Amino acid sequence: MLKLLLTFVTLTLPFLAHSFSPDHPTDRRVLVLLDDLAVKSSHSLFFKTLQSRGFDLDFKLADDPKIALQRYGQYNYDALILFSPTVDRFGGSIDLAAILDFVDSGHDLIIAADTNASDLIRQISVECGVDFDEDPSAMVIDHTSYAVSDNEGDHTLIASDDFIMSDVILGSKKIEAPVLFKGIGHTINPENSLVLKVLSASPSAYSANPKSKLSSPPSLTGSSISLVSVVQARNNARVLISGSSSMFSDRFFRSKVQKAGRPDKHEKSANEQFVTELSKWVFHERGHLKAVNVRHHKVGEIDEPAIYRINDDVEYSVEIYEWHGKSWEPYVADDVQVQFYMMSPYVLKTISTDKKGHYFTAFKVPDIYGVFQFKVEYNRLGYTSVALSKQIPVRPFRHNEYERFIPAAYPYYGATFTMMAGFFVFTAVHLYNK
To answer: Angle at CA 250, nearest 5°, toward 242 and 205?
Structure first.
């Protein structure tokens, strides 16, 4: 029995040590599924950047019959990288439903498709809100924003610099050089507001078969074509979808680049910087928020009451921090709001901050009694959402808590005493006047 227990601890300890933790979002174990183990060498620079940042990569062939995302109801991995665009069926217990459940459980996913992308990879992308070109032979072609080379060919090697304007997603350091891209384009499902285009094609681009003449207008054209997109689900799981697996390759990382029509030549493409910074966001090394120490109490008091009374003066505070790869740093913003909510917000206030992560405000409880909630629902581009809720009842005044004389009622008091005095005067005059 003791031997079995020791064996179980030995097998499960590595998974527990690398499991996702809200306090250490980047302590993760990543499963990498490949079409061919040669990809491990051809894309080694990308994998090394992940390993240098503390990620434990587990490389498997996509059709390995022994692979599994979970064991005994617990996930073995916290992120999944699919560098297997041609796979028609995964091995083991992994399938479309398993991958979608993996994301629905709050885990992260990177998908690198290509011109030979299988229906399975396309289906996974569709479920994430991205639609690849239906033509299996189509590629993104651009006759004005292609990368200049000795053999320009069909202009399918794109030099793109149309990035999303977000420091939290792509980092604060400006990307100077274009990104090399060769693959298939996709569009974003307009009904899915959670998908963002990170790298877009130029207005002159289109998607078609480069080896044949156009017989009809292409279905994907211009800036509507997305080359790289990201998704942040409502459970804060993050997904990266790229139409080019070559974009992650060592060859593209090291290539020189010159965009057509521009005189400046770059000794190195921006692929490495772009992919590295984007992977930091996908794996929650940036833009990951947590809220702690949520407190509320009456002004002048410390303890949180079980119930408030109408018109009480209340103070509310919360601390918000952002993960910066190695430690939690204070999150500073001026757009965090709190609601005092019952069916609809009766109070909506922007919370002040001391720029050290502490947010605070004060307000008066409305003259309405019932069951209220303190609610903070913070959603900002590139950041994980913060949703806080604390329920608290509000009672009316007791019979002995009302003021003896209400200032607003002074006119009525005056009218009452005036009528009484007038009645006595009238009575005296009527009785004693002859």
So the answer is: 40
Per-residue pLDDT tens over the stretch 340-349: 999 899 999 9
| CA separation, residue 334 to residues 337, 351, 382, 421 (Å) | 9, 7, 16, 60
Nearest to 274 by CA among 157, 140, 180, 148: 180
Q: Tell me how far CA of residue 21 lies from CA of 64, 223, 386, in angstroms.
A: 28, 38, 17
Distance from the Cα of residue 361 to its chain's centroid? 26
Q: Are 228 and 201 in contact (CB under 8 A)?
A: no
Give me the helices (H) in 224-324, please. Answer: 250-254, 271-282
Q: What are phi and psi of 94, to 5 degrees?
A: -90, 130
Rounded average pLDDT per 10-residue block, the chain, 434 residues: 43 41 66 92 94 91 90 89 92 91 92 91 92 87 82 82 92 91 89 89 89 82 92 92 93 90 87 94 92 92 91 93 88 92 91 91 92 93 92 88 78 90 88 76
pLDDT tens profile 206-215: 898 888 887 7
The alpha carbon dihedral of 115, 120, 125, 130 has a sign of positive
Q: What is the DSSP string of 7-65?
A: HHHHHHHHHHHTS-BTTBTT--EEEEEESSTTHHHHTHHHHHHHHHTT-EEEEEETT-T
DSSP 429: H
The letter for the amino acid at 95 is: D
Nearest-angstrom CA–CA distance, 129 and 229? 10
Instruction: Quote the pTM value.
Output: 0.83
- Give me the count of residues in the chain: 434
By C-alpha distance, which of 68, 60, 51 is closest to 33? 60
Structural contact between residues 352 and 359, judged by C-beta atoms closer than 8 angstroms: yes
d(CA 110, CA 230): 9
Query: In this structure, what token pair is assigned to residue 15?
Result: 């998974």
d(CA 231, CA 261): 33
* CB-based contact 276:19 (threshold 8 Å): no
- Sheet harboring 386-395: ordered strands across? 308-309, 386-395, 370-378, 337-342, 344-350
- Give the span between the Cα atoms of 200 and 186, in whole angstroms: 10
Terminal C-alpha separation, the chain: 118
Query: 12 φ, ψ to 5°?
Result: -90, -20
CA distance 321 to 415: 60
Q: Token pair for residue 4?
A: 């079995």
Residues 6+ apart with CB under 8 A from 330: 320, 321, 322, 355, 356, 357, 358
Amino acid identity of residue 84, one-letter, is: S
